[in-house]
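Students often ask why inverse folding is considered easier than folding. One informal answer: many sequences map to the same fold, so there is more than one right answer. In these notes we will look at a single instance of the problem. The structure comes first.
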């Protein structure tokens, strides 16, 4: 079971595997002033990815209901998030260099010689997948997706995540409303590695319309994701960047560029079996697909 969880939740894409294997090592060569620009797109990705796929309808039955859902998300990384303008010391011009998603390393030349920056991992998209459980009663639904604590690789670094959400159908208090509406609050945490600890929250306003075998749904969301980064700079006395000359422990919080997003999707219902797909437009857009067993 443990190996299945690792395969499903981490190795769902070669991009995620490469990032987890390499980001920790790269950080030791990134100054405190540049780590935010380097990592911000990745912080955004985990936020929009794990905050997506949290619903496919605004309806919550009055009677006790429960379900199991399998979700997959494809987070699309835009080209403008593969580069950033790094901080440079006096006497240097600021040229664009790679973010964690970019390509070749960048460098600038100035009064103290060359300053080089780490390259990225050539990533265009991030794939995520996870199981989700739902429990509803009297217009309120609890949703959860999580893993146990997993120890990854020879270093036995911990990996886990959990996201919990509460959805309440608000149109149940009104008559003659031509659609169903709900509000949903979600909170989650991701222990990505010993150096990166993510947390995220989301608020969703959801609307849906049921037909005989199908549902059209959409939503407006506000998301916020941040990472607590704690890493050590190796230190190189001959480095032209004064911020990288001495060994140093770095600790800071980096916010993602999540903000507001818009979702549109459709679901097909065949008895207790439901399949759905939707698209979320955000600073990084997300394509979501899922299948559910609902009772």
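Output (designed amino acids):
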């Amino acid at each position: 079971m443990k190996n299945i969880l690792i395969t499903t939740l981490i190795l769902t894409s070669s991009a995620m595997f490469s990032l987890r294997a390499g980001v920790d090592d790269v950080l030791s060569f990134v100054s405190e002033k540049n780590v935010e620009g380097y990592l911000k797109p990745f912080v955004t990705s985990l936020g929009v990815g794990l905050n997506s796929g949290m619903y496919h309808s605004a309806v919550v039955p009055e009677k006790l209901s429960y379900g199991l859902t399998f979700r997959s998300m494809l987070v699309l990384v835009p080209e403008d998030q593969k580069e950033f303008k790094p901080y440079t010391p006096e006497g240097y011009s600021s040229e664009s260099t790679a973010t964690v998603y970019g390509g070749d390393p960048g460098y600038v030349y100035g009064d103290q010689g060359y300053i080089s920056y780490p390259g990225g991992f050539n990533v265009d998209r991030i794939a995520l997948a996870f199981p989700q459980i739902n429990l509803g009663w009297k217009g309120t639904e609890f949703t959860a997706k999580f893993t146990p604590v997993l120890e990854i690789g020879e270093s036995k670094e911990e990996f886990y995540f959990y996201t919990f959400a509460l959805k309440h159908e608000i149109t149940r208090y009104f008559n003659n409303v031509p659609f169903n509406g709900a509000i949903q609050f979600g909170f989650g945490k991701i222990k990505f590695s010993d150096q990166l600890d993510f947390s995220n929250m989301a608020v969703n306003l959801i609307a849906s319309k049921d037909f005989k075998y199908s549902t059209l749904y959409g939503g407006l969301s506000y998301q916020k994701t941040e990472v607590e980064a704690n890493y050590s700079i190796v230190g190189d006395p001959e480095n032209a960047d004064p911020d990288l000359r001495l060994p140093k422990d770095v600790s800071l919080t980096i916010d993602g560029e999540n903000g507001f997003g818009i979702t549109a999707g459709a679901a097909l219902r065949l008895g207790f079996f439901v399949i759905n797909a939707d698209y979320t437009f955000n600073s990084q857009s997300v394509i979501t697909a899922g299948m559910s067993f609902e009772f």
